[in-house]
Fold GNAT family N-acetyltransferase.
Amino acid sequence: MINEIYFNNFPSLESERLILRKLELTDAAEVQLIRSDEKVMIYMDSERQMTIQHSENFISNKLKMYEERTGIFWAIIEKSTNKFMGDFAFFKIDNKNSRAEIGYTLKPEFWGNGFMKEAMLNVFNFGFSDLKLHSLEANINPQNDNSRAILTKMGFQKEAYFRENYYYNGDYLDSEIYSLLKTDYQKSKK
C-alpha cells in the first residue's frame, strides 16, 4: 500500500539544479511547445498538442488524476533560470500493488546534460522512500533508443516485448515494458 498522505498536499521536490513542482494550467503554453515538437513526440505514440487548449485539457486530466490519487505530474523547472524544461509523472498508480508507471518529456535544448537523470533520481527516491512504491514501470516504443538507454542506466530491467499491442495513427505498434524494483534501485545506489 502506498503512503497516500502525498495526495493531501502536492509533493514538490528539489535537487541541485531542478525544482519539480505541480504541473498547472498556467504551464499550458510550455507543455504545448514540448508536446507539439516532433523531436520530442516522435516515439510518444500519442497525438501532438498543436493548440494551447489541447494542452490545457491534457493538464486538466492530469490534475484530475492527482485528485483521484492515480497520478502525480510534475513540471521540471531549471532552478538557476526558472525555465520550464519538461514534465515527469507517476501515473496508473496501483495502490494495492504499490506500483506506478512513469512518463517524462524534456525540451531538446536540455538533452544530453544529465537533467533527466537528475529528475529521475529525485522522483524515484521520493517514490520508493516516501510514497512507498514497490516498483515502477515504463512502456516505450522499441525504436526509442534514448529512452531505453536512460531506463537501463537507472537500473530498469526489460520485462516484456509486446508485438502490435498498441493501435495509433492507423498502425499497430510494438511496445517494450521495463520495470524497476525498489530493492534493485536501493542496491544500485550503494
